[in-house]
Design brief:
Chain lengths: 364, 364, 364, 364
């Protein structure tokens, strides 16, 4: 494999580069190679093949969790609704940040399984142990608690929807709060590769795994064609899980496609290197924005950057670069999201920075 | 593209050939080529890209249904639960054959969306118009019908779980029955390519489309890595469908993967040729079985064959060929399924026939 | 209390007497007296009052089950859907007889909670232990069981929809089968008072309770205005049950209405005496039918009788008596249901018998 | 009927009077009389009797809505979950105030039917037309709206959970907003009788009915044993509604109990007079509180009063009066709810006022 960003081919229309999200390209070329190489092998369906077994073993190894169950799912909403609906009894809900993906951008997938999202305020999408403790204790302290949705789990995103990452101490505390209150902790790691690549990240996979009941290692945003690996450490949540997957339409017939992809990504650390590339590109953008004195909506060290820019600056670069509108800040400025990924080319980043600089300068 | 079965590489372990199902290999090589070629293009996510648009247009063209909505989903259970739960109001159920996939092999996916499968007896998995008329009329004639699940649609499989295909007259009658009784008709075309390749098939895609409210053109069993194209002809079922897909976890982030695959398959008729190959391989097996006087559990002209074979014959070929156990017929014989597919090699078919002949002869 | 049927007032239109079902009158007068007496007491809502506590204690006493949880619900479908949806995990279904009330006459209430009814054939509505063993074992023996609905419980009706009652040995075996296969047994006792009054009944409440995970003592058909008492013996099903009740809209604000009614019925055995009255009236009818050589669709010793009668006989008595149409037997005869209840007057029974005799005689 | 509060019997323990809620007594005596009088009549089950028909006709008359469908349900959560789940398609949610009953005190009943509560901020529990317009328009303006729950209806409480009432202009505007945005308006009238009795109320039943798609006339809190009358004016929501009721376990077997009760209440305006009594008692309390300079958490003219009182005052009266804790305001004071009802006796109100005066005086 050549490093991301180094390929020479003119691979897309040079008039427009998209930084809108981290799933706009296909996959790392090594994955297509592996799919081609294995294409005519006959394997059992529905993930009961050797590639899935091998990839699951790699993940158990990387997590130092030999007893964990590992399932490979196609998409993020799918894995979230499965994890939540499997963990909760009918009268329970999932505590989440108000901006949590399950609460905002999954079309009510959790509610469609019968469960309420119990949304707590959070400026950057992170939850604290004390928020959880306070919420659960207030619930049971209320004389009418049987008339309210019982909190049964915490859903947390790593990194969050605003790119924020948890520290080791924060994760420990969140986990401790869940243990104390007797509820599950599930972590949506759609952007886990970038969280791990965060320079400030002071925890690793075994630590994360040991401090959750279940979590995902996102693939779709990390260079796979598609795929989310669900790691279930708590034995209470492991039982009969494949029935659930099938029932929700998530059991891929040619399940090996997931095993093969994760195998390629994890065998020699490609998954982590691609996360590092995405974050390096974001850091380069953030350094440039700092030099330009462009404020950020929210600080983070992962692959999403949320600068607050004048409309006229955005207008000036809009024939060449597409960013993701996020929220209006005032009459002349808005926050936008710049998402980098495993596929972001450094020359595109450089061009974006140059264009922004020119536009900002023209504005001043 | 070279014809299926003609590739020269020793692609799998020669000690075992599987005829157990039609999704044991990856995909037609042309699909991997297309994925590679488009890999670094940036496209919008969630199926809003040009490849999906183009593939949907091709399907509308093939179906002579310019107003139809076309959605691309990953899997069969997913598309079935979406189609059924979107079409039904909460108090309604789906009439299906007792062996219908939604009633037997989807882990209660339909019930998980709140709806009952209203199973009717059928020896080969087909439903008749008169069965539908009788069921719906009996429902409304019952004074207590408000205490029963109201039939709201018919789910039919083409081809059925036993490989049976509908005739033009049968489809017309089923559709007429649904119109008369005011319920929807949805056809699960997971094996549609093989139904179309049935020598006895006297209808085509435009006919099918014109005689259903919605149907699927299955991809997973037809040579794609994965994919089911849902064609919704009835405008009443089209509204807001993408919300439903997202809510059920079925909106693929890199949706273009589906558009690209269908594009490759439909552009020059590859989809249909691969179905013809699968059926040709099955016909060759059926001719050989007839010569051996091996009885079939159920007759059909599609890609699944259900011979009733002595246990000792199955034992004799078991070191070289794996067939799919289906049901025990008597103490010494069982019915098995032999599934051929787009990927079945003719030399494997010949070898299977030779092995069966030798074993049957030894038995007599 | 005066015996049912002995009241002197002309309480209804003498031109028509209904034997169509067992919930056509209000309630035993003692209940209205108790409601009046307690009417202006202030009690806490939602069943947390002393009347509910006392009635629950009586039930625990009658069942010799001091650890059982007892909840009072308003209706039968409500209690069934609660018991089933609370006991099952999302991927599980409830084994029941094909004619089981949950499978036929609850408008898909079970499916609306996400669960499939796994219907087994039964001529009289009873299930056997061996049916359960065979079904559960076949499920797990199937290599594709993760693609099928996992049996998680048995739903049985005592008496059944056709009035059949279980013997002690049958109940023991059904319970043993559930223990062996690791699934729950729930008994719908909507007509439990009549089952207990069956002359052939060789078990009692403590026995029933000891051989189920949960069961109901029906009130609506036993002389209450409304009410089903759910007795949950298995601690695993007791936890958080009031949340479930509230969530499904079953927590009666003035819950004491249920406690007061059950208190009246159970304090001195009225519940059981009323069941005996209903069955005595049915036995009188059955003896007369036997004398007339009228065949029955199905034999039983409870409060429902299913004679097969010529249409002309039914026509002849139809200006005076309304029976419940059940099923057509041949061109000239149909089975009807004659339901007696706590409120059936003996003079009405005598009049019905006389009318039937005259009509049958005229027919011969 | 003697006026509420005037009965002479010592009907309860004089050591404690409860003002905690409005459903602590049984029912108005006229209802028990009617139940007794009709007790032995035989009627068809499930609400298909003449009493339900007559009561429904009365309601249609009172609402000047001859085409409205009227259904009688047992409880408030039941009717809310039915109205919401019947009106919404699977991907839609119900806009409500954050304090709305469905969002806070129904144990997730709405989510259990698959739908999200879309909670908007509101200090007194009322929603404005502009809130609705803004929410719906923002939804469809968002490019990713298919990833979010689509607003499909508004749920509003009259009076609200804090006792607030809508004005004619506010109701018109809310209704106009719903028409403009194409969503339904459903009004939970659990406390409708008290809203109508509000001295400031400038609308009546026909007005309310004409400005909603459906609404309820609450009975449980208005002097019935139980019961909520659901009035469905919009024909689109009327179809097949009895199936829904049955499916959710809400079809009362002896449905006439509801028809009889509503008949008694509506025949000569008792329903409205009881609401006036409840409000008159609350007004008396509010005048007294004003004289004592006790601040209120929220102003209203219905039957609930929310004074902010020092803990020591509450402590001082606690041996004689139980109020409902609502929320802590500061270290020494809390807001409590004083609920009056159809059954509140004026001497109890006078005693409460006297006790409060003494305690407040002692405090100053």
């Amino acid at each position: 494999m050549t490093a991301p960003g180094s390929d020479k081919t003119e691979r897309r229309d040079m008039r427009m580069v998209y930084f809108t999200c981290d799933y706009q390209e296909g996959c790392h070329p090594a994955i297509l190679e592996a799919l081609e190489k294995t294409n005519f092998e006959q394997t059992p369906g529905y993930g009961e093949d050797k590639y899935c077994r091998e990839a699951a073993d790699m993940i158990r190894g990387l997590c130092a969790a030999p007893e964990a169950a590992v399932h490979f799912l196609v998409g993020g909403t799918q894995v979230n609704l499965l994890a939540v609906s499997c963990a909760l009894r009918p009268h329970q809900g999932a505590i989440c940040a108000a901006m949590g993906h399950i609460n905002t951008h999954e079309s009510g997938a959790i509610e469609a399984t019968g469960h309420k999202c119990l949304a707590l305020p959070s400026p950057d999408g992170k939850l604290t142990g004390d928020q959880v403790r306070a919420y659960v204790r207030a619930h049971f302290a209320d004389a009418t608690h049987e008339h309210m949705v019982q909190p049964g789990m915490v859903y947390a995103s790593v990194a969050t929807e605003l790119g924020a990452n948890y520290t080791r101490v924060e994760l420990e505390d969140l986990w401790a709060a869940c243990r104390e209150t007797g509820i599950y902790l599930y972590i949506d790691g759609a952007r886990l590769a970038c969280a791990l690549a965060d320079a400030a990240c002071d925890w690793d996979l075994p630590f994360l795994c040991a401090h959750t009941d279940a979590f995902t290692m996102g693939g779709t945003k990390a260079g796979l064609l598609f795929g989310e690996a669900l790691v279930i450490r708590n034995p209470a949540l492991q039982k009969d899980f494949r029935y659930f997957i099938k029932q929700r339409g998530g059991l891929l017939a040619k399940g090996r496609l997931l095993g093969i992809q994760y195998g390629v990504m994890l065998r020699d650390g490609l998954y982590f290197r691609l996360g590092q590339h995405a974050v390096a590109m974001a850091e380069k953008i953030r350094r440039a924005l700092a030099e330009m004195n462009v404020p950020l909506l929210s600080e983070n060290g992962t692959n999403q950057t949320f600068p607050i820019l004048p409309d006229r600056v955005l207008e000036a670069i809009s024939d060449r670069f597409t960013l993701c509108p996020w929220e209006r800040v005032d009459e002349t400025r808005q926050a936008v999201r710049i998402a980098t990924s495993w596929a972001t080319r450094e020359e595109d980043v450089d061009a974006l920075i140059a264009a922004l600089k020119a536009a900002v300068q023209a504005e001043n």
